[in-house]
Amino acid sequence: MKRIAWIAIGSGLLMQPALADELFFEATGKISTEVTFYAADGQFANQNYRTNLSLSAEPEFYWQWNEQRDSLTFSPFFRKDQRDSERTHADIRELSWVHLAENWELRTGLRRVFWGVTEFQNLVDVINQKDQVEGLDKEHKLGQPMINLSLVKDWGIVDFYLLPGFREQTYAGANGRLRAGLVVSDDATTYQATNREKHIDLAARWSHSLDVYDLGAHWYKGTDRSPQYKAISEHGKPVLSAHYQQIEQVGLDLQATIDSWLWKGELIYQDNPQQNFWASQLGVEYTFYGIQETSTDLGLLFEFGKDQRGKKANNIMQNDIGIGARFALNDTQSTTMLVGAIHDLDYHTTSFSVEAERRIGDDWKASLEARAFSTGNSDDPAAIFDQDDYLKLTLDWYF
Amino acid sequence: MNIKQLTTSIIASSVLALSATTAFAGAAEDQGMAISKEAKARDEGWVDMTASMNMVLRNKQGQESIREIRMKVLEIIGDGDKSLSIFDRPRDVKGTAFLSFSHTTGADDQWLYLPALKRVKRIASRNKSGPFMGSEFSFEDLASFEIEKYTYKFIGEEPCAIGSCFVVEQYPTDKNSGYKKRIVWIDKAEYRMLKTDFYDRKNSLLKTLTSEQFQQYKGKFWRPSLMKMVNHQSKKSTDLSYKQYKFGNGLTAADFNKNTLKRAR
Questions:
Q1: Using one digit for the tens of pLDDT, what is the confidence trace for B48-105?
Q2: Is residue B48 within 8 Å of B74, Cβ to Cβ?
Q3: How near does any CA of chain A get to the CA of B246, in Å?
């Protein structure tokens, strides 16, 4: 019998992962309480409320064996929302087995992958579908089924992805805020591929660090994660249907880290049934360390997003500049704050955001997120958020 | 002796005194460098090391906060070390990992893995003087000691906690260092750094580090089990204790890349 080393929940013991021939197990995670205050009632039907309460849990179970060469991670996610039945949802963020060999590793199962270097959007980040009901920042993603072979070479890391099974984007329901006037129907989804969500998508990526440069290049062929929308009638009610087309895309990402400067760029070229286009996100971040003789760092961000499709792009930074100021207090509570604004050069509209967080004690974290949309231009697709200015307070408990 | 002779004589003796000082300073610099080189040489050849770090941060009121980090380090002869640090506590940063390729001259290469986003970020290493995880240790305090990072001056010999110590001033060569100088007490028997006084950019005493409970590994390498850093200006302190030092783990450069960073546990 293999001996099982437990880390009991809440115990302060630090265990060294996996001595030879032992199975290592660890359970961690967080539980979050979130309350959102809206500045006004919503502009659409069923949005006549100004507060919303929501709870979520994301445990992670981890096993490791075979002298650390094999591991299994299981991380489910649950959310219960006071108002929006579509936001009340569950997902498997990760259920994956990783096997390591000398110069390669094989990762199989549901996983999340991040590609990119910029801050306001990541054009090259194509593997996972967004869990959009979780927030507008696109940081929340659904677990994607995959087989991923990763090779470590002297000339970089090469990843090959076989992606069986597609996940539809999540949308706010009829009682949810931060949505379009019409609700996106789960039942009306259409696909270009005849085998619909069973289409097998493929991707490959090379990435490498050379001196001050971090470089990445990718190729992707398969179902577009961002759908096209069409207004249809469902049971006599107008709704939106999402249509997922097939695309082929190549892209580059680059960061140069030079003294206090980070120069960043992401570029994609996409071929889809409607048109071929390129899009880019270029930017720079400069950090002042230890401002005013304190430990506080201040980072200033500037980015510019451009999509060749212009106003027809299903990309909110089609011709937008983003600016931001990031404060890191470097204190015991790891207090940080990010203040930002995005200005649309096509519609002359601006949105503002503030994000801040601070640890409380050893196991809690409080965060604040506020957004204000000042469009005043009904042509701007972001005008659907005109009445949705909000302040969201979140308290996380980690175990 | 007339005025002119007196003046000449004063100038002459001043010049003599000046050249004597210069010659002495040169010798003090050489001696300071020689002691530091010997300390470095005696600590070469450890190949690789793993350890657990436990930090207790105390504020002025004595409130405590805990940090737990595991680290893997690979010695690179002729350049700075490669290291991978994995954060276990506090829990909100659990799974965060930090990969660093330090260099004897020029900027270090550093990447941070953020587990919630599955994102690897290349970060600027310019921030040497910033606090490490809110502690009284800055990034440069925890970096490997390299001869090229300082110029030296031998001050003298003093009795210290274990026997007799060389006292050497070390002046950082990096303009991004948070210090004007540091004064180190190195014991004459084993060349261990027992105590360090850190002076800020304005040359006022900022912090004192004392290293205790030294143990010898592989019959050669001395490591402290406890490092106490006290900030005299903020009255905060951090106790850093090392546990489970292990040398000769068979680590190679292949254990230090973005793939190992992403799966570090």
A1: 999 999 999 999 999 999 999 999 999 998 888 999 999 999 999 999 999 999 988 8
A2: yes
A3: 12
Q: Is the dihedral of CA A35, A36, A39, A43 positive or negative?
A: negative
Judged by CB atoms closer than 8 Å, whether chains meet at B134 and A214 is answered as no
Phi and psi at residue A115, to the nearest 5°: -120, 140
* Cβ proximity of A114 and B117 under 8 Å: yes
What confidence tens digit (pLDDT) does each residue in B196-239 have?
999 999 999 999 999 999 999 999 999 999 999 999 999 999 99
CA–CA separation, A384 and A182 (whole Å): 10
A157/B131 CB distance under 8 A: no
Contact between B117 and A139 using a beta-carbon 8 Å cutoff: yes
Phi, psi of A17 (to 5 degrees): -60, 135
Residues of chain B in contact with residue A205, where contact means CB-CB under 8 angstroms, are none
CB A177 within 8 A of CB A38: yes
User: Which chain A residues are within 8 Å of B54, Cβ to Cβ?
Assistant: 14
- DSSP secondary structure letters along A347-389: TTEEEEEEEEEEEETTTEEEEEEEEEEE---TTSGGGGGTT--
Among candidates A3, A60, A54, which has minimal Cα distance to A393? A54
* Interchain contact, A214 vs B129, CB within 8 Å: no
ipTM above 0.90, yes or no: yes
Read off the amino acid at residue A170. Answer: T
